[in-house]
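Thread: Biotin synthase, structure

OP (GT): Posting the sequence first so everyone is looking at the same thing. Length is 358 residues per the record. Can we get the structure tokens written out before standup tomorrow? I want them in the notebook alongside the other entries.
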Amino acid sequence: MPSRHDAIADAVLAGTPATEQDALAVLQSDDDELLEVVAAAARLRRRHFGNAVKVNYLVNLKSGLCPEDCHYCSQRLGSQADILKYTWLRPDEAVEQAAAGLRGGATRICMVSSGRGPTDRDIDRVAGMVGALKQEHPEVEVCACLGLLKDGQAQRLREAGVDAYNHNLNTAQSHHDHIVTTHTYADRVDTVNRAKDAGLSPCSGLIAGLGESDEQLVEALFALRDLGSDSIPVNFLMPFDGTPLEGTWELTPGRCLRILAMARMVCPDREIRIAGGREMHLRSLQGLALQVANSIFLGDYLTSEGQAAEADLELIRDNGFVVLGADAVAAGARPSSQRPHDPAKRRRGAGTDVPANA
């Protein structure tokens, strides 16, 4: 007998959008239903994206010293987090960093800077970087993430060759003022709409684990669907020491899977990207999450390290997926004959003076 989650997937596949009640049913499912939830959402993922995984690579153009007070952010005003802080990379440095991601198997470069929003001079600076990158790598897809946009800036980025613009809603409108006070929810929606109006593909997502309720997670996802976000990064809070949310741990691997599955049910044909916090919160369930999501970041994040880039590519391959737009060599695959075969020898525990692995 089909599960209730299969019934939701059947309806979505038949063209009936998921309701808020459907989303809550996925989010609040029992542990013994988790594989049923993943299997149901995976049907939607396979229908729209097959077995491909889009690989994205972040280039942090300017890090730290942001005047905004987003409680979750290590770059926020007043943050005591011990992160890298630097001003704008030179254009050649930015292109070099982006090229490293492309060599690693990424097809989309996300160029990010801290701050409330760019000046017109900043827009020109980024436009030059994008032009230089596309001159060397004309096939690359570029997403910019520079903060709140003003009149004409989205159009300038589009003319420079930027393909998409990221500006996350981050949380529900009803929860927004609990996590930031220096800008409004409406400010964020306005920037996404400016990007759309200029012909940029809108990329907007959320952060889970900010103290929101189940209903507010659902509210945020439906807002993203209604906003028309083509790509939805799902971040899981990384509670940096030195930020207001230091020590906040609300997430489990199972809850993260349910959030991703809910996103797939609500937005079946949109790119669902497992973003920041993937390794920290999904842990051993990262591979299972790819049955639902169809996009990840390669390597490191803005101010935190990710797992080794090769481990990301192995995660994709070992779970039966392929990197979108890349052949085996470009995706970093190594033939089995080139991989080490000799197991690591035990040098601890019984028969040694080294503590056991227990």
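GT: Both are above now. Quick notes for whoever picks this up: The radius of gyration is 21 Å. The chain has twelve helices and ten strands.
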